[in-house]
Amino acid sequence: MTSKHPLNKKRLLLGITGGIAAYKAAELARLLIQDNIEVQAVMTESACHFIGPTTLQALTGKPVYTQLWDESVSNSMAHIDLSRATDVILVAPASADFIAKIAHGLADDLLSTLCLARNCPLIVAPAMNRQMLENPATQRNLATLQQDDVTILGPAHGAQACGETGPGRMLEADELFKAIQHFFQPGRLQDQRVLITAGPTFEAIDAVRGITNLSSGKMGFAIAKAASEAGAEVTLISGPVCLAPPPVKKLIRITSATEMLAAVENESKHCDIFISVAAVADYRPAISHAQKLKKSDDHWTLALVPNPDILQYVANLPNPPFCVGFAAETNDIEKHATAKRRKKNLPLLVANLAQEAIGADENTLILFDDHGKHTLPRAPKITQARRLIEHIASLYQA
Ligand SMILES: Cc1cc2nc3c(=O)[nH]c(=O)nc-3n(C[C@H](O)[C@H](O)[C@H](O)COP(=O)(O)O)c2cc1C
């Protein structure tokens, strides 16, 4: 079961679960094989009631695995080995039952166990009766999968095997095939090294108090995800945030602006593109006390000193990477953004309205570059991040 596949040949593990649409998986396997993609089929026990493993074995030219307890596998580790020897897992059709299992991390058969043990992307193509799909439990499970970075293809709307009409049909084999071809295409930033800063910084006053801001890190984390999707090797340097880590090569957590600068000094030596999204505190206390300061009735004056300008540091390097700055403004957005771009000599500056963007799940972005001003109308931050990465890739490659 070790990978003996030729270099550059893409490998896909096709999981098939128990639904009428299982018959479409045979056509899908045929299209993938024709396109020189190596396909390893794994079927649940229920799937075998709908389509015979022999069909998949003949189409893929490989034994089809169905059992967790398979004595023909030399080390009995099919659940690990199969998930390591693939570039992506596609479960098509994905039954309501299977979606529920992987949303909850269950692993009681071979396919669910190797989905849990995977270290590659997971794509599912749901197929079920419309009422099964619309059931709040299934909707919750699909939302969980989305949060867990699982890609969901479909389902489509139309006539169902049960005689009803509605949402729940699995996408057709050729539609799934096109989505897989797209997945395997090299991204716009393939193998480019992208360094991103995100979140706020926290500048300690004493052991328990500090100066920070309302940045949630959502925009920076979304950009890190979008850059990874575009094939970049992403290093993300993040201030204190409460977000699940995106799929990046390296995540460095820091607290203060000084720590962020030290991490950026290290990492910017090896990057092609630098995207400065973090809301770095402009000032820090002149003295940071190790002990908690005691309350008193006196007025208290806090002396502040300016923090280093991290973006300026990178932009002024002898061989600077392609630098993208962010500006969060409450007013006169265009005036402040163009002034900041000019002062720091940046090829691209991204501006947004602080009161609409900070902490929110959606925002409007206004991009300023040598060609002028481009507005990305209000949308979820991940959509904006993908649009921004497209824009950066176009400028960077020009
Ligand atoms: C004739 C028949 C058709 C079925 N079609 C579907 C279907 O299209 N989608 C689905 O989610 N479940 C369907 N089911 C129910 C699943 O097969 C059942 O939930 C099973 O436990 C799924 O097992 P698996 O997720 O391990 O493959 C069907 C059951 C039968 C008997």
From TrEMBL:
<dbReference type="GO" id="GO:0010181">
    <property type="term" value="F:FMN binding"/>
</dbReference>
<feature type="binding site">
    <location>
        <position position="292"/>
    </location>
    <ligand>
        <name>CTP</name>
    </ligand>
</feature>
<feature type="region of interest" description="Phosphopantothenate--cysteine ligase">
    <location>
        <begin position="194"/>
        <end position="398"/>
    </location>
</feature>
<dbReference type="GO" id="GO:0071513">
    <property type="term" value="C:phosphopantothenoylcysteine decarboxylase complex"/>
</dbReference>
<dbReference type="InterPro" id="IPR003382">
    <property type="entry name" value="Flavoprotein"/>
</dbReference>
<feature type="binding site">
    <location>
        <position position="326"/>
    </location>
    <ligand>
        <name>CTP</name>
    </ligand>
</feature>
<feature type="region of interest" description="Phosphopantothenoylcysteine decarboxylase">
    <location>
        <begin position="1"/>
        <end position="193"/>
    </location>
</feature>
<comment type="similarity">
    <text>In the C-terminal section; belongs to the PPC synthetase family.</text>
</comment>
<dbReference type="InterPro" id="IPR036551">
    <property type="entry name" value="Flavin_trans-like"/>
</dbReference>
<comment type="function">
    <text>Catalyzes two sequential steps in the biosynthesis of coenzyme A. In the first step cysteine is conjugated to 4'-phosphopantothenate to form 4-phosphopantothenoylcysteine. In the second step the latter compound is decarboxylated to form 4'-phosphopantotheine.</text>
</comment>
<keyword id="KW-0460">Magnesium</keyword>
<feature type="binding site">
    <location>
        <position position="344"/>
    </location>
    <ligand>
        <name>CTP</name>
    </ligand>
</feature>
<dbReference type="Pfam" id="PF04127">
    <property type="entry name" value="DFP"/>
</dbReference>
<keyword id="KW-0288">FMN</keyword>
<dbReference type="InterPro" id="IPR035929">
    <property type="entry name" value="CoaB-like_sf"/>
</dbReference>
<dbReference type="InterPro" id="IPR007085">
    <property type="entry name" value="DNA/pantothenate-metab_flavo_C"/>
</dbReference>
<feature type="binding site">
    <location>
        <begin position="308"/>
        <end position="311"/>
    </location>
    <ligand>
        <name>CTP</name>
    </ligand>
</feature>
<keyword id="KW-0285">Flavoprotein</keyword>
<dbReference type="Pfam" id="PF02441">
    <property type="entry name" value="Flavoprotein"/>
</dbReference>
<comment type="similarity">
    <text>In the N-terminal section; belongs to the HFCD (homo-oligomeric flavin containing Cys decarboxylase) superfamily.</text>
</comment>
<dbReference type="InterPro" id="IPR005252">
    <property type="entry name" value="CoaBC"/>
</dbReference>
<dbReference type="GO" id="GO:0004633">
    <property type="term" value="F:phosphopantothenoylcysteine decarboxylase activity"/>
</dbReference>
<keyword id="KW-0511">Multifunctional enzyme</keyword>
<feature type="binding site">
    <location>
        <position position="340"/>
    </location>
    <ligand>
        <name>CTP</name>
    </ligand>
</feature>
<comment type="pathway">
    <text>Cofactor biosynthesis; coenzyme A biosynthesis; CoA from (R)-pantothenate: step 2/5.</text>
</comment>
<feature type="binding site">
    <location>
        <position position="282"/>
    </location>
    <ligand>
        <name>CTP</name>
    </ligand>
</feature>
<dbReference type="GO" id="GO:0004632">
    <property type="term" value="F:phosphopantothenate--cysteine ligase activity"/>
</dbReference>
<comment type="function">
    <text>Catalyzes two steps in the biosynthesis of coenzyme A. In the first step cysteine is conjugated to 4'-phosphopantothenate to form 4-phosphopantothenoylcysteine, in the latter compound is decarboxylated to form 4'-phosphopantotheine.</text>
</comment>
<keyword id="KW-0456">Lyase</keyword>
<dbReference type="GO" id="GO:0015941">
    <property type="term" value="P:pantothenate catabolic process"/>
</dbReference>
<keyword id="KW-0436">Ligase</keyword>
<feature type="active site" description="Proton donor">
    <location>
        <position position="162"/>
    </location>
</feature>
<feature type="domain" description="Flavoprotein">
    <location>
        <begin position="10"/>
        <end position="179"/>
    </location>
</feature>
<dbReference type="GO" id="GO:0015937">
    <property type="term" value="P:coenzyme A biosynthetic process"/>
</dbReference>
<comment type="pathway">
    <text>Cofactor biosynthesis; coenzyme A biosynthesis; CoA from (R)-pantothenate: step 3/5.</text>
</comment>
<feature type="domain" description="DNA/pantothenate metabolism flavoprotein C-terminal">
    <location>
        <begin position="189"/>
        <end position="394"/>
    </location>
</feature>
<keyword id="KW-0210">Decarboxylase</keyword>
<keyword id="KW-0479">Metal-binding</keyword>
<protein>
    <recommendedName>
        <fullName>Coenzyme A biosynthesis bifunctional protein CoaBC</fullName>
        <ecNumber>4.1.1.36</ecNumber>
        <ecNumber>6.3.2.5</ecNumber>
    </recommendedName>
</protein>
<dbReference type="GO" id="GO:0046872">
    <property type="term" value="F:metal ion binding"/>
</dbReference>
